[in-house]
Design goal:
Largest sheet of chain A: 10 strands, antiparallel
Largest interface: A-B, 48 and 43 residues
Distance between the termini of chain B: 27 Å
Order of helices and strands of chain B: HHHHHHHHH
Radius of gyration of chain B: 19 Å
Number of strands of chain B: 0
Largest sheet of chain B: none
Number of helices of chain B: 9
Order of helices and strands of chain A: HHHHHEHEEHEEEEEEEEEEEEEEHEEHE
Oligomer: heterodimer
Number of strands of chain A: 20
Structural class of chain A: alpha+beta
Shape of chain A: elongated
CATH topology of the largest domain in chain A: Tick-borne Encephalitis virus Glycoprotein, domain 1
Strand content of chain B: under 5%
Strand content of chain A: 35-45%
Helix content of chain B: over 70%
Number of helices of chain A: 9
CATH class of the largest domain in chain A: Mainly Beta
Helix content of chain A: 25-40%
Radius of gyration of chain A: 38 Å
Structural class of chain B: mainly alpha
Chain lengths: 447, 275
């Protein structure tokens, strides 16, 4: 019974089935955007589909029970297959043909036979040299005046595939450990602020960190054509009340502290200070520049009216950064209006007999730092190295075996050659065998 | 004289190479075959020059980086990779059919870049996410893999034409095993390169986005492709499948390649949207 189940799991048919099933189901998760809030799906797909999504965790399908089950099945399948074929492979790798293999001369794919008029000892010397060149150190045996020369090289290549398959298990194990013992989350820190916690995804739970991070400043640089060149957060780490590290985090240059990896992930404008607004009366050409802070009122030129900034927003109705301005006149209701900002061309806003232009402000950024810990990472890297080592072994080491039988004749001797390689490029080995042996034989026959 | 102009010269060469390979194939003339090879190789030299020229130009503009960073550059590199794989494989399977397929792909990719109108040929600086040492190894291994799969796809299609086409195609195309065999070898090499591409991508993702794997559409589709070709190799090497079933899986695999390469960017949203 157990044996039956084992054989079922150790079938390559199951592997092929799992590959196709995983491939087809994976498509689903690329069509339905993963991990958005529930109401988004409600709007996009309707309640009927959404309830189906809930049953199968489609909105986070790569972590759903059934997808993980498929992966576990794949792992079990690979393990079972490896376990089943390993003894045979090891035998092949470490076995040497110590017994004379007569069958080779009948069934191996590359076979030649020929005759030489040279004395047998001389022929044996030539054969040994050729064999050494083709397949490594020769081993000579004599049986009833017939001499056999054997060599084998590169048997270890068959371990390559074992490595590749074990490495997949190692990578999957690393992934599993990472998803159980690790986490990934986001810290949003306004310049100057300090935070000691992260919001985890998925799930939006809050996690307290064993240290806190201060964002000293966030810097964004642009190329001449306006494309972003660098996002950088200068951070300071406080551990048990003391400053323990100061670092710049850039995209592609994460900072690792006590096993926690901090990456530059996003940014935004939290607020702004130091507003420069040019203002003039509509009939007047000369503008005066007001330097304002939010909620501080200043007198407008030529009268009793005052102006103040009530609020700054990063994006007002798709128009970009704007301030909400207020004109305060005695015995009149406050006049509230938006003044948009453009970095490229001056935007003028007319209101209450004045013309306003928001010329400059100093944004106060927040940085989005992704923080995570993954105890499975070392295993994953080992798996990656192993899979590449396995492929290199398979691709660049060729397993070559070679038997030569020298039978004495009345004048000279007969030479039988049998060769095989497990490699795909049998042809090149065949050619090499040919060129090595042709020159020492007077009569040759390809079998 | 700029690099895009040199690419169009190479594109013309590839077009004529495909044509000459076809004529050589129909008339089975050695002279034509050599001519086709010379034309294809010249195209390859021009394209190599264009890539180097673009690299140099980007340095002159002060934003120097390997020209592997946007759709246009990747199309040209894809075309170059197909030709490279073909020229390397020529020694072993010097056959006109592979020449037709390779020249056709090498021609159509840059031709698409210049004709579609939505592919900008401008040299752009690298955005922060692309400023990584992994860029070169990731892109090169991925596109060499794509190139192998493209050639496998071409031979698989020809296999089906040969098998389903009856008497006429048999007379024209000859032994169907040749196609099956080339397709298999290209897939084996492509699979190893794709594995390398995914691993270098994972390493890059780890430093850029803080995780080596995040089920981003591009990542997921690369895995889908990997699993299709994985199934192909297991079916063939262990279960002994041959012929039509293999050709169909190979075609399916290449559709996945195309979707991984272009579909994800045009249709799905993700972190890889810059390419």
């Amino acid at each position: 019974m157990i044996k039956k189940i084992f054989i079922k799991f150790a079938s390559v048919r199951l592997t092929i089935f799992l590959f196709f099933t995983l491939a087809v189901t994976s498509i689903l998760g690329t069509l339905v955007v993963q991990g958005l809030p529930a109401d988004h799906y409600e709007k996009a797909y309707g309640p009927g589909l959404v309830s189906l999504f809930d049953v199968f965790d489609i909105t986070d399908m790569y972590h759903s029970w059934w997808f993980i089950l498929l992966m576990v099945l794949l792992a079990v399948n690979i393990a079972a297959c490896s376990f089943r074929t390993l003894p045979r492979t090891l035998k092949k790798v470490f076995r040497k043909d110590s017994e004379i293999n007569e069958a080779a001369f009948r069934v191996w794919p590359i076979r030649y036979t020929g005759e030489s008029r040279d004395p047998i000892n001389e022929v044996e010397q030539h054969v040994c040299a050729a064999v050494r060149h083709l397949a490594g150190a020769p081993m000579v045996k004599t049986q009833e005046a017939v001499r056999y020369v054997y060599a084998e090289r590169g048997a270890v290549t068959q371990l390559g595939m074992v490595f590749v398959h074990i490495s997949i298990l190692v990578i999957l194990a690393g992934g599993l450990i990472g998803s159980i013992g690790g986490f990934i989350g986001q810290m949003t820190i306004v310049e100057g602020d300090t935070s000691g916690s992260a919001v985890l995804f998925p799930g939006n739970r809050e996690k307290t960190l064993p240290f806190s991070v201060r964002c000293d400043r966030f810097i964004i640089e642009f190329y001449d054509n306006g494309m972003p060149k660098e996002y950088r957060s200068d951070v300071t780490i406080f551990d048990e009340g003391k400053i323990t590290a100061s670092e710049s985090i850039r995209v592609n240059h994460p900072f690792t502290y006590k096993g926690f990896k901090l990456c530059q992930a996003s940014y935004g404008i939290a607020g702004a200070t130091d507003f420069k607004i040019a203002v003039r009366a509509e009939k007047n050409d000369v503008a005066s520049i007001l330097t304002l802070e939010p909620m501080k009122k200043m007198a407008l030129p030529g009268g009793d009216a005052h102006f103040a900034i009530a609020r700054f927003t990063q994006n007002h109705q798709g128009q970009g950064p704007s301030v909400l301005g207020v004109i305060i006149k005695p015995e009149a209701p406050h006049d509230i209006f938006w003044i948009p900002y453009s970095a490229h061309h001056p935007l003028r806003t007319k209101r209450g007999g004045f013309v306003f232009e928001l010329q400059k402000f100093t944004p106060r950024y927040y940085t989005g730092i992704q923080i995570g810990k993954d105890p499975g990472m070392p295993l994953v890297w080992i798996g990656f190295m192993l899979i590449l080592a396995g492929f290199v072994m398979v691709l660049f080491i060729s397993h070559r075996r070679l038997w030569v039988r020298i039978t004495p004749l009345r004048d000279g001797c007969r030479i039988d050659i049998a060769a095989r390689t497990e490699r795909v490029n049998e042809r090149s080995y065949e050619k090499a065998v040919q060129t090595q042996f042709l020159k020492m034989m007077d009569v040759i026959k390809v079998l | 004289m700029n690099d895009t102009f040199i690419v169009s010269i190479a594109t013309f060469f590839y077009f004529f190479a495909a044509l000459t390979f076809f004529v050589a194939f129909v008339f089975q003339k050695r002279v034509l075959q050599i001519t086709a090879l010379v034309v294809a190789t010249s195209g390859f030299c021009f394209e190599t020059g264009a890539i180097l020229c673009r690299w140099l130009l980007s340095h002159q503009q002060g934003i120097g980086h390997a020209p592997l960073s946007n759709l246009y550059e990747s199309l040209v590199f894809f075309s170059w990779s197909v030709m490279l794989i073909f020229l390397v494989a020529w020694k072993r399977y010097g056959n006109n059919i592979l020449g037709i397929i390779a020249s056709f792909f090498a021609f159509i990719l840059p031709a698409y870049a210049s004709l579609s109108g939505r592919v900008t040929t401008e040299i752009q600086p690298l955005i922060p996410a692309l400023q990584s040492n992994w860029l070169i190894s990731h892109v090169i291994s991925s596109f060499l893999a794509y190139a192998c799969f493209a050639l496998a796809f071409g031979t698989s299609v020809l296999y089906l034409i040969r098998v389903w086409g009856g008497q006429k195609s048999a007379a024209l195309l000859g032994d169907s095993h040749v196609f099956d065999d080339i397709s298999h070898r290209m897939t084996s090499i492509g699979f190893v390169l794709l594995t390398l591409g995914i691993i270098t991508g994972a390493a890059w993702a780890d430093s850029a986005w803080g995780r080596y794997w995040g089920w981003d559409p591009k990542e997921t589709w690369s895995l889908i492709t990997w699993m299709i070709y994985g199934a192909y190799l297991h079916a063939r090497l262990i279960r002994g499948w041959r012929g039509t079933a293999m050709a169909l899986i190979s075609i399916l695999g290449f559709l996945a390649v195309i979707f991984t390469y272009l579909g994800v960017n045009y249709i799905l949203a993700g972190l890889h949207s810059y390419m």
